[in-house]
Specification:
Strand content: 25-35%
Distance between the termini: 22 Å
Radius of gyration: 22 Å
Number of helices: 3
Structural class: alpha/beta
């Protein structure tokens, strides 16, 4: 089972719809055009289109499986006293005195550019269950970071 926000669920549904209704028909059309050109054994366009079709079908199956097992979280039932899924956490790095704000999301919604980190990431794992004011040590590729939780919101 995969828990996610309504926004993340809607985004996955839209991506799946785009793949099925726009991209897949385009690839099928490209295969048909390449097939009409004759000998398939040495037809690069045909083989490239078939590879693209296989890639798209794999992505479609993956997104279908994710959506099958997805459960949308009712944010009204979540508390903001401890860090958990869909918590917005402001943290301070005690080593270099920098501040960061992250939202803890499902792995399928993670996007560092939007300051959304996966619940399965080392930082989120270390923060989960902690309260504002707590100090945690996190092992990251660059070494060990000491972080203080400044605030938690939803």
């Amino acid at each position: 089972m995969e828990y996610m926000s309504q926004e993340g669920y809607d985004k996955l549904v839209a991506e799946l719809q785009q793949l099925e209704s726009v991209e897949l028909p385009q690839v099928r059309e490209a295969i048909a055009e390449a097939r009409d050109k004759g000998d398939l054994s040495e037809n690069f366009e045909y083989h490239a289109a078939k590879r693209e079709q296989a890639r798209l079908l794999g992505r479609i199956r993956f997104k279908q499986r994710v959506l099958e097992h997805a459960r949308v979280i009712d944010t009204s039932l979540l508390g903001s006293d401890t860090v958990g899924l869909l918590s917005k956490v402001e943290i301070s790095n005690l080593v270099n005195n920098s501040r960061m704000t992250y939202t803890i999301v499902s792995p399928h919604e993670a996007n560092i550019m939007e300051h959304k980190i996966s619940i399965k990431s080392p930082i989120a794992q270390a923060l989960t269950g902690k309260k504002a004011g707590d100090i945690v040590e996190v092992r990251v590729p660059a070494g060990i970071q000491k972080l203080r939780i400044e605030s938690i919101t939803l």
